[in-house]
Amino acid sequence: MAGALLEALLDRDALAGASRTSPAWLADARRAAAEALVREGLPGARNEAWKYTSLRALEQRKPIVGDAEAKRRAVEAATFGLPGIDGSRLVFVNGVLRDDLSRVEPAAGLSIFTLATANPAELEPWRAALARDAGTDAAFARLNTALAADGPLVRVAPGATIDAPVHLVFVGIAAEQEIAWHARALIEVGAGASLRVVEHHVGAAAAQIGNVVAQYALGAGAKLDLVGIQGASDAATLIRRSEFSLGAGAVLSTHALDIGAQLARHDIDVALAGRGARFASRGVFALRGRQHADLHLDVRHAARDTASDILWRGVADGRARGVFHGAITVEAGADGADANLSNKNLLLSPHAEIDTQPVLEIYADEVKAAHGATVGQLDEGAMFYLRSRGLPPDAARQLLIAAFCGVALADVAEPALREHLAAMLASRLPRIGED
Amino acid sequence: MLKIENLHVRVAGKEILKGVSLEVNAGEVHAIMGPNGAGKSTLGNVIAGREGYDVTAGTIEYAGRNLLELEPEERAAAGVFLAFQYPVEIPGVNNTYFLRTALNAQRKHRGEPELDSMQFLKRVREKLAVLHLKDELLHRAVNEGFSGGEKKRNEIFQMALLEPRLAILDETDSGLDIDALKMVADGVNAMRAPERAFVVITHYQRLLDYIVPDYVHVLADGRIVESGDRTLAHKLEEHGYAWIAERHVPDTISAGAA
User: Taking the model in full, what pTM does it have?
Assistant: First the structure.
């Protein structure tokens, strides 16, 4: 049974709006997704994947779909500018492309379209991805399929190397009413091709719901370096799902900094489908106030000699709540798999809470797997060591927290971006009185 | 400079120090020797201000002040330094950055101007040369992945850089081969000065061949049971700590009391 939220979102006008220019297959996919949602609803309290994030309050909200004024809203370029990132940039404000803020830097082998303006022939290659149903747990992805009207479509031709990172920006900005916007990003890196992407979520004082599904496909031997920055408004709800499929010998390297949103849910689904595919994930979430972040990482080793290496750090202050769910599955026949997962978390306040769940399921024989997860406070021994050298407690604390998180972002390739991320992170950690 | 009187300390409800008295003057080197579990490290930790050490009786006066009233960082700024028996690894904190932050925090506390990067680096180079240390140590995270010897040398390097007035070396010799031991001793000897005092805590006499003490004290079962000059260390080496135990009947009545 659909709650108020789904009733508000799945009205006839909204669905019609989303499929206005669609080819028939996309309209069918949207309809099927909407019907599945009406039939099955949002994940309930007993759904294991949503155990720590109750949707009850969200379900009662009645936002309107999309923002008719999105093309006219004032957005400062400074809110999304990043040092050292000066390639193509596509800026979506409340889910709608802003030509005035975007630019495409032509590069051999790089083609960029958008969901709203692509013609049926241009959409055809994305058919399987757009019509994919990820199931009841991924109800918001269904909502995205039904309603996403815009988003970037990026393709790198086989063998092409794109030097300048593609900057995908999703801005959530206050509207007159509470809105829910949906954006769909599709990125394909062809066989032997190489691409860098910055997926960047920003926002200002907006109590709204953002829903972003990003689907990344890496062909055989393709390389993708992805930096995800989630600095959404502290009032926003941001639901993301990122899917990755890796062909033989493909290499995916990701870094993530999650510091924004009131409620953030991010599902990261990685399929190591081809032999020798490799995935590295580094990330940190830093939460404060009453922020709630729920990260679900699901890695599937489906071929021989695949590798995954996950290192995440979490910090929660105030009454914040963090969830890290890291599941690694090594399928039967995926011998030679090498899986590493480390998740360490730091509680900075007696009222903060972090839950970490590493899950390892192995159905193959020759597998190397290691995982470790901790939730704790600052190390007393380290605190005393720093204080015994003259650091006041606040400075010692700040140094230790920054170092604890910093290891997750230490190997971001671009130095200017690395420093920027460190500064962003520092701005969210407990401050000491500088005088 | 340091005056400890009748110090009683409990750790986790157990009395470890049972009335230690010790006076250290500027320019002196005191060695504290004793068997394992005698309370040697407790003494060093209490002087540095570590939490979890409950002073139930006695006083520690340092440079005319009640040391026990000061926070660890205040003690550091006042010139107290503890070379840790087990230096802590701090991943992600660059050694140079850490040292500059520490030095400037101390200077600020004392009302001295902070050193800029150039001034700091100059000082670092001078100290590295004296200690025959490699630059590489500076670029690594504090003690992370350091060998036992590197950690101890890093402690001595920190001491050289921070220039304390009272340095306590807590078993800095443990786990060191003879070359590393000499290097540590050279570092300490280079810093010996009329205005500076050292308390060298050690289990073995070996270190005292290289850092020659003015006084040697034997700590056993929470008390200083014997004091003398450097020859006492040799007697201990010859006869072992059992020799001391035979000369002093442990106070079982106070040890058994609630």
Answer: 0.85
* Residue in B51, B92, B98 closest to A384 by CB: B51
Question: Are A385 and B87 an interchain contact pair (Cβ–Cβ within 8 Å)?
Answer: yes
CB atoms within 10 A of CB A347: 19
Give the pLDDT of residue B240. Answer: 80
pLDDT of A198 above 90:
yes
The pLDDT assigned to A20 comes to 66
- Rounded to whole angstroms, how far apart are CA atoms A53 and A126? 31
**pLDDT digits 0-9 by tens, B158-168:** 999 999 999 99
Chain A CB contacts of B99 below 8 Å: 389
| Cα B152 to Cα B147: distance, rounded to the nearest angstrom | 9
Please report residues of A whose CB lies closer than 8 A to that of B102: 386, 389-391
- List the structure tokens of B242: 């059992």
Nearest-5° Cα angle at A342, A371 to B148: 100
Tens digits of per-residue pLDDT, B210-227?
999 999 999 999 999 999
When mean pLDDT is compared across A365-369, A412-416, B43-47, B248-252, the lowest value belongs to B248-252
**What single letter denotes the amino acid at residue A216?**
Y
Quote the mean pLDDT of chain A: 93
Q: Which residue has the higher pLDDT, A133 or B75?
A: B75
Contact list in B for residue A395 (CB cut-off 8 A) is 101, 105
Q: What is the ipTM of this complex?
A: 0.93
Token code pair at residue A273: 């489908």
Structure-model confidence comparison of residues B150 and B46, the more confident one: B46
Give the chain A residue nearest B47 (alpha carbons).
A388
**Which of B252, B222, B248, B218 lies closest to B57, judged by CA?**
B222
Indicate the residue of B71, B84, B91 with minimum beta-carbon distance to A385. Answer: B84
Q: How far is A408 from chain B (nearest CA, A)?
A: 10
- For residue B252, pLDDT beyond 60: no
**For the segment A245-254, what is each residue's pLDDT rounded down to a tens digit?**
999 999 999 9
User: What chain A residue is nearest to B46 in terms of C-alpha separation?
Assistant: A388
- Which of A391, A402, A407 is opposite residue B102, by nearest beta carbon? A391
Residues facing residue A297 across a β-bridge: A268, A326
| Residues of chain B found within 8 Å of residue A379, distances taken between Cβ atoms | 88
**Cβ–Cβ of B109/A390 closer than 8 Å?**
yes
Q: What region, left, alpha or beta, does residue B13 occupy, with left being phi > 0 and alpha being psi -120 to 50 degrees?
A: left
> Which residues are within 8 A (CB) of B203 and not within 5 positions of it... i.e. 6 or more apart?
B33, B34, B35, B36, B40, B171, B174
**Which residue of chain A is at minimal alpha-carbon distance from B77?**
A390
Closest CA to A202 of A241, A234, A166: A234
Q: Give the angle subtended at the CA of A423 by the CAs of A348 and A95, to the nearest 5°.
A: 95
pLDDT for residue A434: 38
**A387/chain B closest Cα distance in angstroms:** 5
Judged by CB atoms closer than 8 Å, whether chains meet at B72 and A382 is answered as no
Distances (CA, A) of B142 to A393, B135, B159: 18, 13, 14
Per DSSP, chain B holds a count of helices (H) and strands (E) of 10, 12
The strand pairing partners of A189, in sequence order, are: A156, A218
Whether residues B106 and A382 touch (CB distance < 8 A) is answered with no
Q: Taking 80 as the threshold, does the pLDDT of residue A365 lie above it?
A: yes
Neighbours of A78 (CB within 10 A): 6
Q: Is the pLDDT of residue B255 over 60?
A: no
> Would you say A322 and A316 are in contact if contact means Cβ atoms under 8 Å apart?
yes
